[in-house]
Amino acid sequence: MNKVMSNKWIIILYTFPALLLIAVLIVIPLILSGYFGLMDWDGIGAMEFIGLDNYIAALQDTKFWDSTLHSFLLALFSACSLIGYLAVALILASKIKGASLLRKIYLIPMLLSSVAIAQLWIKVYNPSNGMLNSILLGLGIDNPPAWLADPNIVLYAIFVPIIWQYAGFYILIYYAALKNIPESLIEAAKIDGATPLQIALKIKIPLIMNVFKVTIVLSIVGSLKYFDLIYVMTGGGPNGASEVMASYMYKLAFSSYNFGYGSAIGFLLLIITLIVTVIIRKLTVSKDEIQY
Amino acid sequence: MRRIGYTLLYVCLGLVAVFQIFPILWLFMFSLKSNQEIFAGNPFALPLEPRWENYLKVFDGGIGTYFWNSIWITALATVLTILVASMATFAITRMKWKLSSLVLGLIMVGLMIPIHSALIPLYNMFLNVNLIDNPLSIVITYVTYNLPITVMILLGFYTTIPREIEEAAIIDGSSIHRLFFRIILPISAPIMSTTVIINMIYNWNEFVFVNTFISSEKYKTLTVGIQNFIGQYMTDWGAIGATLVISVLPIIVAFLFFSNKIMEGITASAVKG
């Protein structure tokens, strides 16, 4: 039995396809991205080694810093909005009639492609005929904003469809975690005279803290790599007001044919994401230790 | 007092539901309206007389090709992902070897990285092997990038398979391949169906790889194809609406039938990370 189940050739045969694909299409490209970042290269012609010039240029590039700032702003918004999703999930999990139907309704936007969501919200935000401004005009508000065309508003305007897309996802996760709390704990607290608010704050939330921490990482890391929705909705515009790290990288490479510099930005995106992941993991773990 | 509290809670939940569902209903409605009706009328109104010709126009415009590409690329990539992921998960969880956790860790790296960092080198690789503007590049990229999440969902089930099942099979003289294909794969059908549905949604909705690697209209999938369509219809809102509805309808129909599987898959793929 053991001999059969530790046959080396079989193990290699069964893991080889997965390992080959991951090595060739994920690991090697990530390393190459750092390497291409050292080159002056238009993507077609010969590469010329220029050392760290691209990385130094990135650090002095205000467009890069602006797009990084926008990515971090989105990450901050996303992390803060988790509290709202948690509140909805707490209500939903407290023996509400129709909770199962509501949960499904909340989840629908998450299943649509980012392209469809972006196109739909372009229409919602259309200054003259969109759903939003039709409602605002109907309410008697003259001169409603131009939303996606207004550099001061665009980033916030984009954040609304992002909430729309992900709210159901986080509510679903919190709901599942809350439903895993043993009923006896809640009953015991009720007998001791705890109010629903106390039960939520002192029992339910601490018990699902681990899940909450995972979602903090998911939302922040996910925000740092947002691309599809923003690329389709605004292309980073107007005038860079909604540019994020991934869209800036994409433009450099596939619109400006600056593959060397684009790779450098892509590699920085990787490094930034990894550093942020490690920091958040550390922060959430140390809190854990204080608690217990 | 308690009743008022409950009513307030229901109002909150109801408002969230309206916010989530209304843009989609609005989309369905304007896909059946004419420009005049959309621009002059109330956004909440039902179409006066549904203009199904908006949909005919879109089909005549050739959305069928994109639709078909989305179907076969999604299906092929999903089948391959699940086969490759099941084999790897089987070897990692059921077979005895020292490096299994290292291999698992390597596969899981894919969950953390921003795919955009790999995009330029991937493009360059495919260019060098003549796979740019070839749907094969899309299929193998989908398979690879969906492997980590698929393995993660399968993992939980595979670790719970009783040893006795394997022992009995091996004692009966069954080979490992027979054990895997005839016994393990069939008993993992429920969890496999969860990964099928999650993979299908991901592949159906994927945008950036197709947008980067494919340039011919004949190979584009719906997500990228509808971009062109919408550009071409610029001011014809009815046609744009119909295009969007056609692209999201399969997912919404799938959700009506498999909502529990989908929710199970989404929860499993998120929380275990």
Task: Describe it.
The complex is a heterodimer of chains A (292) and B (273). Chain A is mainly α. Chain A has a single domain, classed as MetI-like (MetI-like fold). Chain A has helices spanning 2-5, 8-36, 53-59, 62-92, 99-111, 114-125, 131-138, 154-179, 183-191, 196-207, 209-224, 228-233, 245-254, 259-291, and strands at residues 39-40, 48-49. Chain A is globular, with a radius of gyration of 24 Å. Chain B is mainly α and 273 residues long. Chain B folds into two domains: 2-30; 61-271, Orthogonal Bundle (MetI-like fold), CATH 1.10.3720.10. Helices cover 79% and strands 0% of the residues of chain B. In chain B, α5 (100-112) packs across α7 (135-158) and α12 packs antiparallel against α13 (237-271). Chain B starts with a helix and ends with a helix. The mean pLDDT of chain B is 89. At the A-B interface, α1, α2, α4, α5 and α6 of A face α1, α4, α5, α6 and α7 of B.
Provide a quick synopsis of the model.
With 292 residues, chain A is mainly alpha-helical.
Number of domains of chain B: 2
Which fold name fills CATH's third level, the topology of chain A? MetI-like fold
What is the structural class of chain B?
mainly alpha
For the secondary structure, the number of strands of chain B is 0
Task: Quickly give the CATH architecture of the largest domain in chain B.
Answer: Orthogonal Bundle
Report Rg of chain A.
24 Å
Task: Quote the distance from N terminus to C terminus of chain A.
Answer: 44 Å
Please tell me what the overall shape of chain B is: globular
- The named CATH superfamily of the largest domain in chain B: MetI-like
Query: Which two chains form the greatest contact, residue counts included?
Result: A-B, 93 and 92 residues
Annotation, overall tally of beta strands of chain A: 2
pLDDT < 50 stretches of chain B: none
Major sheet size, sense and barrel closure of chain A: 2 strands, antiparallel
Following the backbone from N to C, one meets helices and strands of chain B in this order, namely HHHHHHHHHHHHH
Distance between the termini of chain B: 42 Å
CATH architecture of chain A: Orthogonal Bundle
Strand content of chain A: under 5%
Corresponding CATH superfamily of chain A? MetI-like
Helix content of chain A: over 70%
H/E series of chain A: HHEEHHHHHHHHHHHH
